[in-house]
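User: Could you check the structure of this?
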Amino acid sequence: MTPIHTTRQIFEKYVPEAAVDYCSDLLNHYGFQFKITRSRKTKLGDYRFLSHTRKHVITVNHDLNKFQFLVTYLHEVAHLITFESHQHRVQPHGIEWKRNFSELLVDMNISSIFPEELGSIIQSYIKNPKASSCADPTLFKALSKYDVKKNGEKFLADLKPGDVFRFNNRLFQKELKKRTRSVCLDMKTGKQYLIPEVATVYPKDLNPDLSLEFCDGGSK
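Assistant: Sure, the predicted structure tokens are below.
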């Protein structure tokens, strides 16, 4: 188990100050291995149970803003709690996980941790958590407001049909919105793709120095 002083130092860097003790207590209570990882394009964090060592392992990407890091961390702790009670007998993001995740969020003093607008969105999210924060466009956009943005970054949701943008170093044109995704035309190949409305994109005249993709938090 990570020593308490080291645990606090980790969380002081990555989560809001008012949530440090809560996050540290969870780690020390459940005794899992906790790792801060490089940025991953397909997920914000994950939970695994290593059968050969009988250890629980939780990882979270290092480059998340403090509010997104906190929500992702609790998302993964909820997987651990669910696994301890049900192993593989329930769906990864089924009703049992939803209940545990909601309880972890409720147990925090939300009003003292999140800004008022974001706290209200978190309160609504608690009623029926999605498989990842990225699967809830309202929550994802609210959390992303606290990211350190590069000049010119936008959400696909902010563009109009017909607008041209760069995504994954390719040029697309937004065509038609379908619920939480939009049909987008690859300007080079002529193929159509569904891209999440919460994807971070660049206006066509900008040349980003980093390829960005939408994310999928939570366990696989």
